[in-house]
Amino acid sequence: MASNPSPAFAYVVLYVKDVAKSTAFYAKAFGCNVRRLDESHRWGELESGKTTIAFTPVHQRETDRITGAVQDPWSGRERPPVELCFAYVDVDAAYKRAVENGAMSVSEPEEKEWGQKVGYVRDIDGIVVRMGSHVSPPKQYHQD
After folding, report:
1. Count of the separate structural domains present in the chain
2. 6 lies in a domain?
3. Backbone phi and psi for residue 60, each to the nearest 5 degrees, phi listed first
4. The domain containing residue 71 runs over which residues?
5. What CATH number is attached to the domain comprising 60?
6. Measuring CA to CA, which of 11, 19, 84, 134 is 20 to 30 A from 2?
7. Predicted local distance difference test score (pLDDT) of residue 124
């Protein structure tokens, strides 16, 4: 009996108010390349390494009927239950670029105790985006 290969994580779908606007915002604020924006503006995709970030409208008859309506809990003290994370060599420059291009500052980059520099912003739909330095993989420990 053949074993099933592990699945590859394909993409994250963000439900947004305006697909074209969010696609352009992410390209400009975070430096992602636009892979696709369909003519109906009901689907957009960004290249972001091995995983694609996709955008689709908050309200869609197709998915609302199948999986339920998307909830929008965002206020000043609430946020959607998702966080995107981008890794950068120069977190300070990436953070500055994001804020200059419309991201809302949440927390400026700072060194964390685990050795990563991390800052947070919100996108134009209130989604939290973590911007951090690359983290080295943990050392392998062997028990004797």
Report:
1. 1
2. no
3. -135, 130
4. 11-133
5. 3.10.180.10
6. 11
7. 93
